[in-house]
Specification:
Strand order of the largest sheet: 1-2-3-4
CATH class of the largest domain: Mainly Beta
Number of strands: 8
CATH topology of the largest domain: PH-domain like
Strand content: 25-35%
Distance between the termini: 29 Å
Number of helices: 3
Largest sheet: 4 strands, antiparallel
CATH architecture of the largest domain: Roll
Order of helices and strands: EHHEEEEEEHE
């Protein structure tokens, strides 16, 4: 049995982020080009008639919304390219250390690397909240009452998967699990 467990964390390179970045870019470009078409009073999109759109006020608003959409899309693609939020959770029983590593935005805090002593872990806490915006999270609960999140931001795991993941981490670390009923 290995004394090191590593859980990879998927960052912003998820299908849903690629999907939304693409959709927002296409929508933003569409609005922007239609706004420009109304300004130049010439259809810049061959299959779309823009003669009925006046530059004031419709064209200005279309150009504005298009510009905002393009900027939002650039931000989304930026987070995808930099893979914001990706990293790993490493549990090393040999050294007695837990390492939480994540990538952030460029700057002095680009790399987040937190290390905790396994002896300081009181338990693994499972937090489940159902409702309109459900949450299913796993935390490292420290002896000094701090709670450090371990779960991925990916898709919502079903109850048995999140419980099994928490139980596996707790067994590996030799601590109890709380929050599972």
């Amino acid at each position: 049995m290995s004394n090191i467990r590593m859980d990879k964390i998927l960052g912003s390179r998820r299908f849903s982020n690629y999907w939304w970045a693409s959709i927002v870019l296409m929508g933003g470009l569409g609005f922007f080009i239609i706004g420009l078409s109304s300004y130049f009073q010439q259809s810049l999109i061959p299959f779309f008639n823009t003669n009925n759109i006046h530059f004031l006020p419709q064209g200005v608003m279309m150009t504005f919304y298009g510009t905002i959409g393009i900027f939002i899309s650039i931000f989304l693609w930026y987070t995808i390219i930099l893979n914001i939020g990706s990293g790993y959770n490493e549990f090393d029983n040999n050294k007695g250390i837990i390492t939480i590593f994540r990538l952030g935005f460029p700057g002095k805090n680009r790399i987040l690397k937190l290390q905790y002593n396994i002896k300081d872990i009181a338990s693994i806490k499972v937090f489940i909240e159902e409702g309109l915006s459900p949450k299913r999270e796993i935390y490292l609960k420290m002896k000094d009452k701090r709670e450090i999140p371990l779960t991925k931001v990916e898709k919502l795991l079903n109850l048995s998967e999140i419980e099994q993941q928490a139980i596996n981490i707790a067994k590996f670390l030799g601590v109890k699990v709380e929050g599972i009923k």
